[in-house]
Amino acid sequence: VNTESMLRESIQNGYFELYYQPVFAMGTQRIVGAEALVRLRHPERGLLAPGEFIDVAEDTGLIVQLGEWVLEEGLRQLSFWHRDYDSSIYLSINVSSKQLQDNRFVRTLEMMLSRYRIKPGFLILEITETMLMHNTDHTLEVMNRLKRLGCLLSIDDFGTGYSSLSYLQKFPLDILKIDRSFVTDIDTNSTHNALVSAIITMSKALNLRVICEGVETEQQLETLQNMRCQMGQGYYFSKPIPADQFTLGYLCGA
Ligand code: G
Ligand code: G
Ligand code: NA
Ligand code: MN
What we know:
The chain has a domain at 3-171 and 245-251: EAL domain (TIM Barrel, Alpha-Beta Barrel). Helix content is 47%, strand content 22%. It contains 12 helices and 10 strands. It has helices spanning 3-13, 54-60, 62-84, 97-101, 105-115, 129-133, 136-149, 167-170, 180-184, 190-205, 218-226, 243-251; strands at 16-25, 31-42, 46-48, 90-94, 123-128, 152-158, 175-178, 209-212, 231-232, 241-242. α2 crosses α3 (62-84). The longest helix has 23 residues, at 62-84. The model has no long low-confidence stretch (mean pLDDT 95). Residues 156-157, 177, 213 line the site of manganese (II) ion. Sodium ion binds next to loops. This is Diguanylate cyclase.
C-alpha cells in the first residue's frame, strides 16, 4: 500500500498518537520534562513508529499538517499536566525543516501557546544538527523569531551531523542533546567517552544545557553523573509511553 495515501487517510481520521519519554535530572533523578514522539495507530497495520512514515511525510509536505497536530496535541497535554500535576515540567517537540520553512509556523505556534495558556519557556523545539546545515539564513531567522517568542531551542542528535562548532554560537540554542550513539558505548569506547566529556564541558562554557540521549544502564548513568551532565533520557529511566501511563507513572504523587 502507498504510504502517502495511508498518511492522508490517517491525518483525516485522527489515527496519530503522541507517546512521551520522560527526561530526568541526572543529579537528583527527578523528572524535569518529556519528549513527545509521534506514533501512528493504524486499524489494519497496527502501531507504527516514525521510522516507517516520517520520511514520506517530509517528502510529501504532509509533515506540515502532521506537525501542527503534534504541536496542538502536545500543548493540550502539557496544559493539562501543568494544571493538575506539575507546573514545572517542560515539553520537547521535534520539528522538521519543512515546518520551519512554512511561513505560518511561528504564528500558528504563538496562537496555540496562547490558546492553551502555556508559557513559551516550557516548550522546547528540537531541531536536528543536519537541519542547521541546510537553509541556514532562513532557519536562523525563524529561530530568532522563536527565541523572541520565548521558546527554548535544542539541537538534536548532536554529533551525528557535520556541523562546525561555530554553529553553536551562530544559532540561538539553549539545549544540546548528545546523540545516543555516543552514550551507548561510553563505558567501552574511550574516544566516545572523551567526546561526550568534552561536549559537556564546552556546552557549559557556551551556556548550553545538555541532555544525553539513550541512557540504558546504571553504569552509563554513573559515568554521565561524574561528567556533570545535567539531564538524560533513555530506556534506563523509561521508554516512550502513552500519555495516561506517563501521568500515572511520573506525575501522580510519584
Ligand atoms: O520514537 P522513535 O524513536 O521511533 O522516533 C524516531 C525519530 O522520529 C525521532 O528521532 C524523531 O527525530 C522522529 N520523530 C518522532 N516524533 C516526531 C515528530 O512529532 N515530528 C518530527 N518531525 N519527527 C519526529
Ligand atoms: O531522533 P530522536 O533523538 O528524537 O529519537 C528519539 C528516539 O530514540 C525515539 O524513537 C526513542 O524511541 C529512541 N530511544 C529513546 N531512548 C532510547 C534508548 O535508551 N535506547 C534506544 N536504543 N533508543 C532510545
Ligand atoms: Na528528538
Ligand atoms: Mn535525538
